[in-house]
Design goal:
14 helices; 3 strands; mainly alpha; 3-stranded antiparallel β-sheet
Length: about 375
């Protein structure tokens, strides 16, 4: 097979990751020096994460997508085992009241990040196989059962933000696959009926929502960080205070190298460069959707489109929190924020996109379907469920 490459996607990813590495050092050096005695503490760990992520990215990019499909359930099962491990004392690692990691000592992995990818790979294969019956409600129910175990294990950690991302991506993939409007309405209603009670079940989630609506009401408590993020962005002006000259990172923002790194970028580099970074994310979405449109089969289109949307929405939510336009979600800024597992999985996702792009056709998948031969993963009409 003639495998192509997508230099634009590679360039955009390199620029975002390089910017992130610089900003992680800038945002963490002083605090890391005070807490650990090593200003390079978070920088070194981020470099290791990038190296591991690049290995996953390159390995996946040169691997045919049929291999990913063949071992999809093994990948899914490993993620389930990892998620179960977050509930086992001695293996689990807790931080800020949540047990989202497994590992020993300073080496920890967040299984939910990998689980997002595993669910989407399995679901894309399933929807590709039954795409001629996407209007059958039984297909929709079975698709929901694919993500249900992961969603339950993640929401109980608790991690409502990742739960919402996984559920939203699965719903988006169903929409891309051509789910009926009535089914879309039913899935949306079910999501609201389940999601709202889960959200209000914990007092801290309600507090986040009320603080988002009026942070000045609790400016010395829960609303403090949002206000400080605004102050940082305002003080940066158009061109910023200069790299390393942020004041907000000095104990005014919680771990500014993760959730609020966008505020540090705005303060140090200014509004113009912040907009340029947002533009890079826009270009990433453009390339991802281009890859999805030219995928050789429905599996590639479903998976590429949803992975692209996942990264785009995570960037939107992270920056939205820093700007105070959406409630805090605890999501990192893809390729930019410090986070070992998140960085690995984002680069892994890029590898999947590159693998799909390598097998792309010149004819968009939506135009080429009628004349295509059945894919190896399509069992044909005989395997379709009876009505």
């Amino acid at each position: 097979m003639n495998r192509r490459t997508d230099p634009w996607l590679i360039l955009i990813t390199v620029l975002l990751t390089g910017l992130g590495l610089v900003m992680v050092y800038s945002a963490s050096a002083i605090v890391a020096g005070e807490e650990t005695g090593n200003e390079l503490h978070y920088f070194k760990r981020q470099c290791i994460a990038i190296a591991m992520g690049l290995f996953l990215c390159v390995s996946t990019a040169v691997t045919p997508t049929r291999v990913l499909r063949r071992y999809r359930w093994a990948f899914y099962a490993c993620c389930i085992v990892g998620l179960v491990g977050t509930y086992i004392p001695g293996i689990q690692h807790k931080a800020n009241g949540a047990a989202r990691w497994v590992g020993f000592g300073s080496v920890n992995i967040q299984p939910s990040e990998y689980a997002k990818l595993a669910v989407l790979v399995v679901l894309a294969h399933y929807l590709d196989r039954w795409r001629s019956r996407i209007g059958d409600w039984r297909v929709i129910v079975n698709a929901g059962l694919v993500c249900l175990p992961v969603v339950l294990l993640v929401v109980l950690q608790p991690d409502f933000g990742t739960t919402a991302i996984i559920s939203g991506c699965c719903a988006l993939m169903l929409f891309i696959a051509g789910m009926k409007p009535t089914h879309i309405g039913a899935v949306g209603a079910a999501g609201v009926a389940i999601g709202v009670p889960v959200m209000v079940a914990e007092a801290y989630r309600v507090a986040r929502l009320t603080n988002f609506l009026n942070p000045w009401e609790r400016q010395d408590a829960e609303g403090y960080h949002i206000i400080q993020s605004w102050v940082a962005m305002h003080s940066g002006g158009l061109w910023g205070q200069g790299l390393g000259n942020s004041m907000a990172k000095l104990h005014f923002l919680p771990e500014p190298w993760t959730d609020f790194i966008g505020a540090v970028i705005a303060e140090e580099l200014g509004l113009v460069r912040l907009v340029m970074m947002i533009g890079l994310f826009g270009l990433f979405v453009w390339r991802g959707l281009h890859i999805a449109r030219h995928a050789r089969d429905a599996f590639g289109m479903y998976l590429a489109g949803t992975l692209t949307a996942m990264i785009g929405f995570e960037a939107f939510f992270n920056l939205g929190v820093a700007m105070g336009i959406i409630p805090p979600k605890g999501l990192v800024l893809p390729f930019i924020s410090y986070g070992s597992t998140a960085m690995q999985c984002n680069l892994f996702a890029v590898g999947i996109l590159l693998s799909i792009a390598a097998e792309s056709d010149t004819v968009p998948v939506t135009e080429g379907w009628p004349n295509r031969k059945p894919s190896l993963a399509d069992p044909g009409p005989s395997a379709l469920p009876a009505k």
